[in-house]
Design a protein that fits this description.
mainly alpha, 19 helices, about 0% strand
Amino acid sequence: MTPVTALAGDSLVQSVDWLTIAPPTLTALVALVVLVADLFVPQERKRLLGWTAIAGLTAALALLVPLRAGDRSTFCLTADTRVAACSYTADHFTLVIQLLVLGGALLTALLSLTETRDRLPAGEYWFLLLSSAAGAALLPASRDLATLVIALEVASLPAFALVGLKRGDRMSGEAALKFFLSSVTATAVTLLGVSFVYAATGTLHLTELAQRLDDVPGQLQTLAEAGVALTLVGFAFKTAAVPFHFWVPDTYVGAPLPVAAYLSVVGKAVGFTGLILVTVVAFPSYADVWGPALAALAALTMTAGNVAALRQLSTRAWSAVRLLAWSSVAQAGYLLVPIAAAAYSSDDQIGATVAYALMYAVVNLGAFAVVALVARRHPENRLADYRGLYAASPAAALALAFFLLNLAGLPPGIIGLFAKVTVFSSAVDAGLGWLAVVMGVNVAAGLYYYLRWTALLFRPPAAAHGTPDGGPAAAPEGGTVPHTVPAPITLAIALTAAVGVVLSGYPQIALRFAANSLF
């Protein structure tokens, strides 16, 4: 039976369905526990904080199971949640995105265990990561603009600090500052847009906005249109859409690698979720405004990302991370296509974005896990450092090859191919033939740099000369000395590879899962 969240008449005192809000609430509580525990746990036992964070994220994921029916709401204006305007809704869309962001945060936590032991302050790191994850889990359930913006900032503000957490590192500090200043500007523009929308409609609830924007008085029409456009700016920034993408490469390079992985998946999911909610749910009557705008942004974003990725030099410091950064910009362009298509056809197109986001989250986190492994021997993380990786670590090389082929949309990465075909079909079905052509050209361009990186993995090591006495070299550059793989990184690579293999064998799982996530 659907739980009832009631108001006594028109009272402002609302009851709370604690099970409905349990996943983000538990994540936030564990963040506070870790922060307080850090004051008392001795330095040699700080690793326990990381395992506490992992346990908390695992428990938060488990709390999604009782909500799988997708029919719960709370913080509603009336007792009948089926017709009320509610501020928090745990529907299928919410649960799928919460699964993505909490699962992404869990894998990030696994990658971070070694970093917090060796380089980063454990207490601050785990508190910030869990706080950001709590905001990211809250955002897909938000059904009013106030909660949406608050969730967006709760997810973003800790991320600024995470990027700059490498103390004494100039690049880290610069990356955090650039990320912070550009994000604050985007947030200010978004808040201005929200205020315009509220002034024109008198409500912040998304479902009521959809109704009232159909009947805005003529003298407020321009104000409403400006509000809709400005509100979209902040979410376009979070998705790294062109021209709001300039912070991405420097931020990824300056941030600790697990944080870069987190931003590439969870940060992007936050932006796309917010964009879906404000366009499809709140502003459907203004589809003629945001539809063409998002279609143009999609074309520009995928093109700019792929062109920049093609220009990465294999010998340049941090070129592997930069390539993944520009790749994430290109992938953002693909993710924008079904949202733009929804303006021309139906909301069903959103399922393509959700399916693509699930695929991208799994394989991109897996790629970052292997990059984190290689960074232990090659801190500058050049693409050239991956030459001969198969000789040194066959399993890691095969896993990275699988992830890159998924991102390229090539077999055996079947789920990557299916996801791209689904996105391509959404553009064709919506009558956006020109956008489908642009996407096809960009996918072909992306094949070059993904395959170039994959080929490096299996090439002979660059220097494998023997010692003067005829014995093997001690530690050749890119040579065959086996990698020492920390157990948490091994687990992260294994989990992402396993999920990727399952989805490639049964891609209909992700597609059906995404189709069932619609509002």
